[in-house]
TrEMBL record:
It comes from Mucor lusitanicus CBS 277.49. Residues 1-25 are annotated as: Disordered. Residues 1-16 have a biased composition (Basic and acidic residues). The lineage of its organism: Eukaryota, Fungi, Fungi incertae sedis, Mucoromycota, Mucoromycotina. This is Uncharacterized protein.
Length: 62
């Protein structure tokens, strides 16, 4: 989705008459917001890390 927005911006700002030496384009990335994570994902990360650490600890102890 983010790449689609970048391609769309590139197409909107394309100029066929531009100087080849000046063909580098900059995009205002600050205007492109990152995708919103699914509900509950952020809250699940600490539990996932704790569970993974516990599993690793048990595997190393045995």
């Amino acid at each position: 989705m983010l790449m689609d927005k970048l391609h769309k911006l590139e197409e909107e700002h394309h100029d066929d008459n531009e100087d080849p030496q000046q063909s580098f384009k900059t995009l205002e990335l600050a205007n492109i917001s990152p995708p919103t994570p699914p509900a509950g994902l952020i809250e699940a990360i600490p539990t996932f890390l704790r569970t993974s650490a516990d599993m690793l600890r048990r595997a190393l102890e045995s």
